[in-house]
Amino acid sequence: PAPAPAAVPAPAAVVLLAVVLQLRSPAPSAGGRSDGYCGRILRAQTQGTRRDGHHEFRLRVEGDPENYQPGSTYRVVLLATSPAYFRGFTLIALREGREGTRDEDYAGQFQIIDEDDTQFMTNCPPAVTESTPRRRTRIQVFWTAPPAGTGCVILKASIVQKRVIYFQEEGSLTVRLCEKEPALDGATETPALECCACGTAKYRLTFYGNWSEKVHPKDYPRRANHWSALIGASHSRSYVLWEYGGYASEGVRQVAEFGSPIKMEEEIRQKGDEVLTVIKTKAQWPAWQPLNLRAAPSAEFSVDRSRHLMSFLTMLGPSPDWNVGLSGEDLCTKECGWVQRLVTDLIPWDAGTDSGVTYESPNKPAIPQEKIRPLTSLDHPQSPFYDPEGGAINPVARLVVERIARKGEQCNVVPDTIDDIVADIGQEEKDEDDTPETCIYSSWSPWSACSSATCDKGRRMRQRMLKAQLDLSVPCPHTQDFQPCMGPGCSMEAPSSCVVTEWREWDPCSATCGQGMRRRERMVKMPPIDGSMCKVEVAEVDKCMMPECHTIRCMFSPWSDWSDCSVTCGRGLRTRQRMLKSEPSAECAEELEQTEKCMLPECPVDCMLSEWSEWSECNKSCGKGHTIRTRMVKLEPQFGGVQCPETIQRKKCKIRKFPGRHLSVSEDMCEVMEKSSFCGVRSRRALDGAALAQKHRSSRSQGEEGEVVWGGEGEWAAAQISFHLKDS
C-alpha cells in the first residue's frame, strides 16, 4: 500500500480510541463537546501497549472497493484470523489528513446492525465500539458514505485483547476509500468495438445484497422479502439480454414479475455460440442476512475474445417488476488484457411490464409495454424510493467480479501486478484454496507411490490431518489431495508421456428441469518432452437429468396480512387475499381468499329486567302508610355490562275511611281507632229538621264512652257507638 501522507501525525490513529476501554477516562461534563473528548482519546495513544496486528486482524469493506459512491451504504467487517480473537474494538471514519479532534473531521455515518454486539461510544458518538466485552472473531456495521466533495476517507480500527491494543496504521486495520467519479445514472459503459485480448479468462462473480430494512426502511416488506435466482451469461456483442431503453423479453418479464429464471435460461441457451457461459446462483430468502449466517452467493464464468461481455439480472421481491443487474459489461481492456477486478453498486430498474409503484402492488400489466428504465427517487410519491428532493437512490446491492485465472497464450505478457502472477500460477496448479479459517490442519504428508504399476496413467495421493475445528457449523474439507502420475515402467522420453490434472467437478446441468448437458474439464500439467500434442481428452460432456419440467400454471403474489376481525368483541371472522400474477387459467383452482375464525374479548352483557308490577294496596287500613311495586331480574350483568338498577319502589299512601265502612274520619280518630277495640249498636227514628240539626250540633263524650250522630231522613239517622280504649 501507498505510504501514509506525511501530514498525518501519529495521533490520528484510531487505535487510541480503544484506550478508553482500558483507562476508563471520566466522562466530560454535561455541557462538554463530544469532539473534545474524542480528541483526548486520540492523544492518549502513547499510554497503551501496541502491537502490529497485520497477520491476525483485518478491517474490510464488503466487496473490497477502491472508491465509494457518495450517499451509498457499505457493510464494514472487522474480523480476526483463526485462532485469534478480540474482546474490544473501536472503529471510526476520518477524512484523509484529519486528526479527529473536531466534528467535521469525521466522514459518513455508521449504522448499528446488531445492538447486542455493537454500539456507539457514549462520549465519542462518531466511534463504534463493543456493547459487551467478550470473545469474538468478527463484528459488522453499515457505513453510509459522506456527500460529494468530501474527498478520500480513512476507515480505522483498533483491537483490544486483554490489555494489549493491536494497531496497524497503514495495514490491515486501515482502509482508504476515495470518492468515485460521478457517472450518468443507469448508464452502462459502451463495450469496445473489438476485443484484442488473447486466450481466456475465468472470473468469479459475487453478489452482495444490501436491500434491508435498516438501509431502505420505507415500506420495507417484512414478509417474503427475497432475491430471485440470479441468471446471466458471458456473451458476444451480437446478443443483448437486456438494456436500458429496450423492451424486456419474455424471459426478462418472468424474472422481473415472478422471479423465475427458467424462460430466461432457455432464451440464453438458444443463442448457441453467442454465449460462452451461463451464470446462475440460487435465490436468497430472506433478502438480507449477516455474512456470518449466510455467505454471499457467487458463480464462476469464462470469457474469450469473441464473448467478452457479461450480463445478468435478479429480481428483488416482492415487487411489481423491479430488478438489478448489469448489461453488456466489458471485461476486455484496451491494453489487450482482461479486467482484474470490478466492483459496482447496483440500483433497481423497472422492466416496463407492470405498472405497480409499491413493493406489494397488485398485478397490473403495463399496456402497452414500457421500456426498461432505472428507477428514480421522483417516480411516484408512494414509491419506497421516493425523495421529494430528488436525491440518489441508495444502492440495493453490490457486485464484485474478480479474475481468478487466465488460460492460453496471453497478448498482454506483462502481468498487472506480482500478486497477479501468483494468482494465475496458483490457479494452474490448483483451484483457489477455499479452506475455511476455522479449520486448522497439519502439514501435507509426502506423495504416495503412483497407483499404476505399469507404464500407464495412475494417481498418487497425499493427506493431512484436521487438528482443530473452531466452528462446528462450518465443514472442514480437503484432507486428501490427488495428482495424476505415470507408472514406473514408463520412459520419460516416450512421446505420449503427458501428465494431466484430476477431472474437475461437473459443471451444473445446462437445464433446470428435464434433460440437459453437463461438462467437466482437466488440464495438461506436463506436455510430452518431444513437443508433440497430448492425445488425452481434456473435456467430457455427459447427459444429465433434472426434475420433470412443470409449466408455471399459477403464479400468485404473497398473501396479504389478515384483516381486522369482523366484530369488536366475541367471535368473528377475518380474511386475507392474494393476487393471481400469471394469466388466468382454468387450471388455477387455488383459492385467492382465505377466511378463519377470530376471537376477541367477550362482549359486555347488560342487566335485563321485567316490567314493573302494579302498585300494591296501602299497608295501612286507616291513616298514613305506603304501597310498593316490584320488577324481576331476567338476566344478570356479565363481562363489565351495565349493573341492575333498583327492583323495588315505594310511595306513601293515606286512608281516612272507617274500617269496613265508607265513612270518613279525621286523622286523629284513625290513630285512636288503631289503638282501640270497639263495638256498638245503632237505631233509627224519625226526627224533624230542627231536631236533626240540633242532633248534628250536639255530641258528647263521657268518660270512656262516646256517641257519634249521623242524620238523614230515610236512613239510619243516628248511631251510638260505645268503645273502649286499648290498654297502652
Q: Helical stretch count?
A: 7
Low-confidence stretches: 1-35, 43-47, 184-192, 414-433, 490-496, 696-728
Distance between the termini: 127 Å
In the CATH hierarchy, what is the architecture of the domain at 200-429 at level 2?
Sandwich
The number of E-state strands comes to 41
Beta-strand percent range: 25-35%
- Average pLDDT: 76
Give the CA-based shape: elongated
Any idea of the CATH topology of the domain at 200-429? Immunoglobulin-like
CATH class of the domain at 200-429 reads Mainly Beta
Classification by helices and strands: mainly beta
Superfamily (CATH H level) name of the domain at 200-429 = F-spondin domain
Query: How helix-rich are the residues, as a percent range?
Result: under 10%
Roughly how many Å is the radius of gyration?
A: 48 Å
* Major beta sheet summary: 8 strands, mixed
Main location: secreted
Keywords: Cell adhesion, Disulfide bond, Extracellular matrix, Glycoprotein, Metal-binding, Repeat, Secreted, Signal
Signal peptide: 1-32
Subcellular location: Secreted, Extracellular space, Extracellular matrix
Give me some keywords for this one:
Immunoglobulin-like; 8-stranded mixed sheet; disordered N terminus
Structure notes:
The chain is mainly beta. Among the domains are: 10-179, Reeler domain (Immunoglobulin-like, Sandwich); 200-429, F-spondin domain (Immunoglobulin-like, Sandwich); 667-725, no CATH class. The protein is 9% helix and 31% strand. The chain has seven helices and 41 strands. The strands form 13 sheets. Strands 1, 3, 5, 7, 8, 10, 11 and 12 form an eight-stranded mixed β-sheet that branches. α1 packs across α2. The protein is elongated, with a radius of gyration of 48 Å. The chain starts with 14 loop residues before the first helix and ends with a strand.
